[in-house]
Amino acid sequence: MKKVMLFTLIVCTFIGILIGCGKKTPTDSEGVSYWHKVESPTTQCLSSVYFASQNDGWAVGAGGTILHYNGSSWEMIESPTTGVFIRVQFLSPNDGWAAAEEEDSCIILHYDGDEWNIHSKFKLGGHPTDMFFLSPTNGWVTAWAFDKSSLKQECAIYHWDGTSWHDVSPFYANLYSVFFVDENDGWVSGRIGGMMPNYHFAHYDGTKWDSILSPMDLTHSSLYFLSADDGWCVGLGTAHYDGSEWKVVECPFFGRLLSVFFLSANDGWAVGKKILHYDGSEWSVDESPEAVLYSVYFISEDEGWAVGEDGIILHYIRDE
Predict the structure, then answer these.
(1) CATH 3.30.930.10: does it fit domain 42-245?
(2) Do 215 and 239 touch, CB atoms closer than 8 A?
(3) Model-level pTM?
(4) What is the spatial distance between Cα 131 and Cα 176, in angstroms, rounded to a whole number?
(5) Are residues 19 and 25 in contact, defined by beta-carbon separation less than 8 angstroms?
(6) Is beta strand 185-192 parallel, antiparallel or unpaired with respect to 198-204?
(7) Domain ranges, ordered by start, for the chain
């Protein structure tokens, strides 16, 4: 009996070793990557996350919520507004910008390295959807609106020239995202029409906007460009721009993606009800979070962040 028990123990140990050898560990050459939830100081919905550096991160959301990451934890920061933030962006650690909706106005806030202050405010007649700053004197805001008296969609692109905001919309449309490669190369995405809308992109060449019909006949949510000939759009699907045209790229998840971020042509991320990763040839589902994610930002291929509803904050780490 003792011999049988000893033999069984040896066999089980051997099987355990074999199974263990098949698992990835932090010492494997490929490394181990994972998303984990970190403590959040708020339950407000978080709409945007951006990092000025690895230990200097920002997230904004509903109720005027502003959070700062100091390298070890997230903390609440005093906010000059109770509006709903839509975007935060940093040009440098001491030059941050954010856009929020408060009543029927769009509020632009600026961070000078010490505190956030209201920089400018303009009437919108609708809802701001995105913001992009190239410099302190060159910023853009997209929006969607509807004029009840004329039953028409309102103009939806606003430009900051360093002095004031101007309505520069080339057509009536609801726009959801804006991204600029440089001052002479910008993109917006959105839709034209009501019950049966057409989805469009518009390209800015430094002087004018030109409308381009989208091959992705579904809702657009977010734009990201690595260069003038390498851009992405996500929404209910994904599409890629190669410098001459937009083409639909097969997506394994039929649900709305709300934010996209690319580190390189072979390393991209998109979030919504799922977390997707692009490896240069195809998209794959990487993770299924417990809450909808509204924004994703990667510092490097080894570290990224995502935020979303109920104040959720996820941190991605890849160990070597």
Answers:
(1) no
(2) yes
(3) 0.86
(4) 10
(5) no
(6) antiparallel
(7) 42-245
